[in-house]
Amino acid sequence: xxxxxxxxxxxxxxxxxxxxxxxxxxxxxxxxxxxxxxxxxxxxxxxxxxxxxxxxxxxxxxxxxxxxxxxxxxxxxxxxxxxxxxxxxxxxxxxxxxxxxxxxxxxxxxxxxxxxxx
Length: 118
Fold this sequence. Notes:
This protein is mainly alpha-helical. About 85% of the residues lie in helices and about 0% in strands. The chain is built from five helices and no strands. It is extended. The two termini are about 35 Å apart.
């Protein structure tokens, strides 16, 4: 790869990082707006769409910053495990951290088994 190509790739990566950051802010604003407008008929669908966008953008931003999807998953597992151990309020009151941890593990297990049979 020539010096020019490498510089072009770095510039393109920086531009993509900036775009992802702006998308992240846009979706956070959309989430706040949806929450402020109250629970209407289509609110759950809009909230699910916006939250899923935020999750995807965070994964993609991490990748552009040199963090693998696997590393992000491991960090999330660590945070959930620590929250469960330390008795985070969401865990104490609702068991949300345990439920999310089980969900992520079951999703990962399904993916592993589907790759096994291919």
